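Re: beginner question about structure tokens

> Can someone show what the tokenized structure looks like for a real chain? I only ever see the sequence side.

Sure, here's an example I had lying around. Input first:
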Amino acid sequence: MRLFAHGATEAGGWGWKVKVERGESLFSLFSRIQTQATSRRILPQLEDEPVMGSEIELTFTEDLQLTEVMRLRVQSLQQRGQKRQDGERLLLSHESVYRLDFSEQELTFSHWNVNLQGTGRFTVTGICQLWTPDLTNLMTRQLLEPIGQFWRNAGDPEDSPIKCLEADIQEFGERIAELAKVRKVMYFLFAYKEGATKDQISCSLTFNKNK
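And the corresponding structure tokens:
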């Protein structure tokens, strides 16, 4: 944004031009110069700040195909009496694979939206692995930290807030936003414990669009 106009007479020592109005006093002129100089110093800083757009909410959805493939992997090893590969992470019976699809990739993390009916605990573990068409086995080195942990203890009122480790879920959300810049889908392990089931849980993330 241009904050000055060209004129026939120059005044001020800032290296930019100010038009002197006919009949304008020196006091008025220098007051106007000072005001414009202040604006010139402040406004460029505002223009450099990223413009935050509207919010977007992304819901975790279960990847049924990938969950089933990982369960079949476990069954196959059990039937053959074989062990997992070194570093391989097998899907446990109380876990499922979920995914986030990023329709926008320039995002800033805002907050989690979690609903848990009743009591229990569930955890969300991020996976940095990009599965290839042959659905490569999950390796433990691909699991991200920290994880998201959410729970409501037995005896807590049903309308009581869900408990969580706030610092961890804040860092986790920020890391998801960073990974969204380089991919359009990200995978997660959801684990249900202490009586919680997938039917009792809904989970999504809210981001701010950066443009």
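Each token stands for a local structural state, so reading them left to right follows the chain. Strands lie at 55-59, 61-62, 95-101, 107-116, 120-127, 148-152, 163-164, 185-193, 201-209.
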